[in-house]
Amino acid sequence: MYIISVIEIDNHEKRSRRPPPTLSCEDFLNWSNANILKHLPSWGSFFTWTNGRFGNENVALHLDRAVCNEAWINFWRNSSCTALVRHQSDHNPLLLSLIFSTVKHATPFKNFKVWTSHDDCRQLVLDNWAKCVRGQGMSRLQAKLCNLKNAFKVWNRNVFGDVDAQVKFAIDEVKRNQLLIDAEGFSDQLYLQDLEAQLFLTKALNFQEQI
Predict the structure, then answer these.
(1) pLDDT digit string (tens) for 1-36?
(2) Which of 5, 76, 112, 171 counts the most CB atoms within 10 A of its CB?
(3) Radius of gyration of the chain (CA)
(4) Which of 117, 29, 16 is nearest to 57 (CA)?
(5) Pick from 53, 74, 52, 59: which is nearest to 1 by CA?
């Protein structure tokens, strides 16, 4: 199995004023055919590399691809490849999916360090810990911890929001812009929209990393 970045193999895999070099395309196709390799179809953005320039100087290529042999396909059967959104790079990363599980597990409670930097965090703990609960010893402690956990969940959602959802929204926006460029062709306006979406995604990822 190969995840490779190579030259485009046909005219439709390059968006530019100049056509792709024919000799290089033929060399790669001959190598692929000689080794009986299969090209896995990729979902997502078709053009996986761009030079990031404006106007007529912009070049986009279907450069990155997943290549495998017949034995790989027969063994995995459900393998697939997805071109993810391009972010802070000139390439779209490729995600190879082989096995997935439909079993859902309960999400554990997590205490985020960023909470302690908020002015209201200490008061939230004091107020909820002071609430009266029934029981003695460990059962009473468990009840207090459960109340505090539920309070933190609500407080986190109201104050910080769903950070993962914000990241997903930002990724979807970048993906929408890049697919729009693929479908309608390059324009400076669409490219500027893509840059704004990239900036929003960077901020969302930085905040997610802090948490």
Answers:
(1) 555 655 556 677 888 887 777 777 788 888 888 888
(2) 171
(3) 25
(4) 16
(5) 74
